[in-house]
Every structure is written in structure tokens, then in C-alpha cells.
């Protein structure tokens, strides 16, 4: 790559010169083709010549210089500019607008766009998000110097393109799948509605990822992006969420939508959600998840391992195996790693921790937090009044519930900074 860097604002709204150096018109914008994972090549310019906007392909450009662009030909095709699908105007569509910084996982604004020559082709190589870049645009053109500070590499950012006519290279699920669902949710929450919708649309082809993202979003944004979806589409999404998250979301929907959507869920998911909806949300029962593995304590290790292998529960729900006595009452727990260290004929009752602390379903959240802290628990079993296990409370769900709203707003402000 040529080390010479140009600001976009150094080569737009500047004179367009012919081969002999005579002024022909004024440069309006640079046109690029955006592709996945690479620098965006400049494929031409738009210019105002003799009262009309025309397109000049990159092969007709002799040089890009601060304050002017020179052409290599005398005769030009003077047809009016018409944008083709996939083409993006840098000054019109990107400069001053927001983008996703995939590396920093935050939304940034392109206060300047940086260009460099790679071989024989000028390309977009980065954006400057600094306030200084914004201030430089207010200076006389002669004072706009190349960047003296690092800028964000173009390959690490992705522009929102929904506003671009005919754009077919907006955000893609492949790019976003590199991020954790919580990070994608953070981006949605920091975005405008249209930007957030573009992010969600990019992951909708991966239904499991979309559900994971919705689980991580706050209630306000969950309901915002489900408002215009059909009940069938909403149920299809909720069916892929963890039952506790699904139950919480259903309770946040408009009242006349709750029962129809609940009845559209698969029978197994519907049963779990209905169970959770029967508990007060401010108690252990309302916070718990219902995915866990509880076996008879007389089960042999080999059979327990087979039960784990055959289970369709998420891996995080299988870190601990709970056990019950012949009457179905919770009587212990054992970490999966400890199970793996014993012979297949060993019975679980020989290796379980029989002093496993547990929660009653009506225990208030403050009590839940104190107990989990006292016993250093990352997950705690929940039992009914007959000591039969009905769910588990995880520390991440507890923290999410207890974190004050003002802390969450402060986190949002930091993400947008």
C-alpha cells in the first residue's frame, strides 16, 4: 500500500481538471464497491459538469491530489449518473454517518474517510472517528493535513447501508457471528431503530443466534423489535430462547398477544414457560431456569455419563448433576468433572455432596443473593414445598436482575462514547 494518505474531504467538492489542466467542473463524490473483508476500491467519481451530474470511471482518473482531481482523457461520456446496485457514495452515504467497529465492538462515527493507493487502485483504507477529524472539516481546505494519529482500519468497520438505494452488501451474519451474542445485543441497544433493525436482519438467517441475541437484549429493545412481527414469527423466535428468558419476554408483550403466542410454542417449551409464569418474578421461582439434569442417586456413573451424552440440554446446564432419593426429593449434587474421574460402576450416592444448599421457590431475590454469595455458588437448585427440584438459579441471571438501572444506563453511555 502506498504510504500516502488522503482525506476524502481533500478530493471532494474540488475542481475537476482535464488532461491539459483546464477546469471542467466540480467533483461531487467518490463511488466505491464494498465487499466482505477487504478494502473498498474506488470505481469512479461523480462530478457536476455543464449543469449535469455525470459518472467518470476510475480508469479515466489520472491523479487524486489534495484540492483537485485530474483526468487522463480529453473526451468524456456525459451521460447522467445513475447509481447501480451495490455502489456506495462515500461522501453521501458514509461520511458523517455511523458504523460498527467490529474489533472494538462499538458504534462509531466516520468523521473522516481515509484513502490510499494500493497498486494502481485507490481504496478506502480507514476512517477517523476523532473529534479532531470533525473539526478539520471546518478548516479551509488548504489546512486539512493527512492524519497524524492512527485511524480505524477499514477492514475492522462496517457501515450501515440500509439507507443506500439498491445496496445489497449491508451487514452480514458471517461478520456478526464473530461476536458474542451479548456484544451484538449491546450494538443493537446503542444503535438507532433503523440501525438496530439492520443488525437483527443480518442475524435472522441464523435462528439460534437471533434467539441468543434477543436473550441478551433489554426488555425495551426486545419489545421494540417484536412489535411489528407476526405472532407466528414471534413464537418461532421465543421457541428458541431459554424457557426463563421466554417467560420473561412473553410477560412484557402486549396483553392481547401473550396467550396466542404462548399457544403457538412447541408443547415442551410451552409447558416449561407456563410453569415459570406461575411464579412471582421477584422470587427464586420467577428467576429460575427449568433446564437441569436430576438423576436417582443410586444411578451408576456410567449411566449418568450416558444421560449427559444423550441430553438435549445446553452444555452449561450439564456442568452439575443433581440427585434425588427414591421419593424424588433433592438429596445432593456433583460436578460433571468429578463424575468423569470415577469408575463406571461407582454409584452417584458415593460421590455426591449431600450438603448441597438449595432455595425454596418463594425465596426473595435478596435472600437468593445472600445464600449464593455465602456458599460461593454459580448455580443453585430450587425446590418446591416437598423438596422436589423444579429449577436452577444461575449467578448471571441473578446479577442481571440486581444490577441497578442507572448502572446499565452508564454502560450504555460508555458503549456510545
Number of helices: 17
Q: How many domain modules?
A: 3
Which range does the strand content fall in?
Answer: 15-25%
Beginning-to-end CA distance, first to last residue:
31 Å
The rough form would be described as elongated
Low-pLDDT windows of residues: 413-417
The pLDDT mean sits at 89
Overall strand count: 20
State the major sheet. 11 strands, mixed
Secondary-structure-derived class: alpha+beta
Radius of gyration computed on alpha carbons:
29 Å
Notes on the structure:
This protein is an alpha+beta fold and 417 residues long. The protein folds into three domains: 155 residues, no CATH class; 107 residues, MgtE N-terminal fold, CATH 1.25.60.10; 107 residues, CBS-domain (Roll), CATH 3.10.580. It contains 17 helices and 20 strands. The strands form four sheets. Strands 1, 2, 3, 4, 5, 6, 7, 8, 11, 12 and 13 form an eleven-stranded mixed sheet that branches. A three-stranded antiparallel sheet has the order 10-9-14, covered by helices on one side. It has a three-stranded mixed sheet with strand order 15-16-17. Helix 4 packs across helix 6. 34% of the residues are buried.
Keyword list:
elongated; single chain; alpha+beta; 3 domains; eleven-stranded mixed β-sheet; MgtE N-terminal fold; 417 residues
Amino acid at each position: 500500500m502506498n504510504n500516502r494518505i488522503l482525506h476524502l474531504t481533500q478530493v471532494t467538492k474540488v475542481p475537476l481538471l482535464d488532461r491539459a489542466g483546464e477546469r471542467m467542473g466540480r467533483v461531487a463524490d467518490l463511488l466505491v464497491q464494498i465487499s466482505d473483508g477487504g478494502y473498498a476500491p474506488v470505481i469512479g467519481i461523480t462530478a457536476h459538469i455543464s449543469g449535469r451530474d455525470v459518472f467518470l470511471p476510475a480508469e479515466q482518473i489520472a491523479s487524486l491530489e489534495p484540492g483537485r482531481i485530474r483526468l487522463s482523457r480529453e473526451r468524456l461520456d456525459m451521460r447522467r449518473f445513475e447509481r447501480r446496485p451495490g455502489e456506495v457514495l462515500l461522501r453521501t452515504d458514509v461520511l458523517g454517518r455511523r458504523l460498527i467497529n467490529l474489533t472494538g465492538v462499538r458504534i462509531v462515527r466516520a468523521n473522516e474517510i481515509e484513502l490510499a493507493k494500493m497498486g494502481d487502485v485507490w481504496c478506502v483504507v480507514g476512517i477517523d472517528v476523532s473529534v479532531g477529524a470533525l473539526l478539520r472539516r471546518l478548516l479551509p481546505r488548504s489546512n486539512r493535513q493527512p492524519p497524524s494519529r492512527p485511524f480505524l482500519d477499514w477492514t475492522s468497520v462496517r457501515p450501515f447501508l440500509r439507507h443506500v438505494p439498491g445496496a445489497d452488501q449491508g451487514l452480514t451474519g458471517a461478520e456478526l457471528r464473530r461476536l458474542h451474542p451479548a456484544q451484538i445485543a449491546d450494538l443493537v441497544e446503542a444503535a438507532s431503530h433503523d440501525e438496530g433493525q439492520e443488525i437483527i436482519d443480518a442475524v435472522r438467517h441464523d435462528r439460534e443466534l437471533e434467539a441468543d441475541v434477543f436473550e441478551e437484549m433489554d426488555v425495551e429493545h426486545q419489545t421494540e423489535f417484536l412489535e411489528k412481527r407476526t405472532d407466528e414469527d414471534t413464537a418461532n423466535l421465543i421457541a428458541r430462547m431459554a424457557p426463563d428468558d421466554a417467560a420473561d419476554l412473553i410477560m412484557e408483550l402486549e396483553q392481547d398477544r401473550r396467550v396466542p403466542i404462548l399457544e403457538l410454542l412447541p408443547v415442551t417449551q410451552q409447558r416449561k414457560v407456563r410453569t415459570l409464569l406461575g411464579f412471582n418474578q421477584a422470587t427464586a421461582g420467577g428467576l429460575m431456569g427449568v433446564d437441569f439434569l436430576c438423576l436417582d442417586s443410586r444411578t451408576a456413573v456410567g449411566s449418568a455419563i450416558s444421560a449427559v451424552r444423550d441430553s438435549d440440554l445446553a452444555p452449561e446446564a450439564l456442568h452439575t448433576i443433581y440427585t434425588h432419593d427414591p421419593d424424588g426429593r433433592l438429596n445432593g449434587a456433583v460436578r460433571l468433572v468429578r463424575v468423569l474421574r470415577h469408575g463406571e460402576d461407582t454409584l452417584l450416592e458415593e460421590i455426591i455432596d449431600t450438603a448441597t444448599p438449595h432455595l425454596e421457590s418463594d425465596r426473595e431475590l435478596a435472600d437468593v443473593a445472600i445464600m449464593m454469595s455465602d456458599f460461593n455458588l454459580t448455580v443453585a437448585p430450587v425446590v418446591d414445598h416437598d423438596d422436589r427440584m423444579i429449577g436452577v438459579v444461575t449467578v448471571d441471571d441473578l446479577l442481571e436482575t440486581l444490577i441497578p438501572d442507572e448502572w446499565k444506563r452508564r454502560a450504555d453511555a460508555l458503549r456510545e462514547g
